[in-house]
């Protein structure tokens, strides 16, 4: 008995009666066209939603989709606050481990970004931290050559301690200049070593993916964890940790900044972070200034800011 086969129409068959192989280029084009049509339809739908929104409904939607303020004190038992308390404990322990492994990286931890500002939308799934290298406080000078991209020169008293993270004579650069690339690489290795030494059972609602929970970013390192809670079940959380060097600007440097609108956010104390595009320069970080600015806004101004973020997210989907 011959095996039963599927009927093949003449349009699907070659001259010898065998089925044609579909043209993959045609299929890909059709698939891309369908995707483009779906994306365009989604954009039009979101635009339509925005056009129909009234002032009242927009405010209601923003409040419904705003995570709200995070609280670190133990008395607060809101679900999103339980998350930040364990995340903050994790990052505090991590920074402490880093300083134990390499005392040069003794640090002060700053919580930054929208979660710290109280403007996080949608889910409590992103946190940002700045790791200030306190050992370098008062021991670096900022080059005046540019306002937003400059070199860092070490003062004489700490040049020996940081010499391996400076440019060498072979680099054809000043050996007293702190290399953002070398410091960033050392920081990344240090964090990876420190994470491996943490007692992960200490964070009862946090799960680590043993294979892929650490990755390098342009200015620091990203840590991926998962939250195992009642409300947020197996929620993926991204934590960005950036290394920063504290500086005190001279009056001339501060006046240069104040020629730009960003200067209104600054006092004479700033942080600089690696600028990896050229592997030579450092750039200012305005995350703490932005945090302070948001905290000084009125309640209505914060609500308007959230509305703008909400509209942006809806429009970009």
Automatic annotation (TrEMBL):
Residue ranges with Polar residues bias: 8-27
A Pfam family recorded for this sequence: Mab-21
Cofactor(s) required, per the database record: Mg(2+)
InterPro entries from the UniProt entry: Mab-21-like_nuc_Trfase
Compositionally biased spans, kind Basic and acidic residues: 28-37
Region (Disordered): 1-37
Family: Belongs to the mab-21 family.
Protein name in the entry: Uncharacterized protein
Record organism: Paramuricea clavata (Red gorgonian)
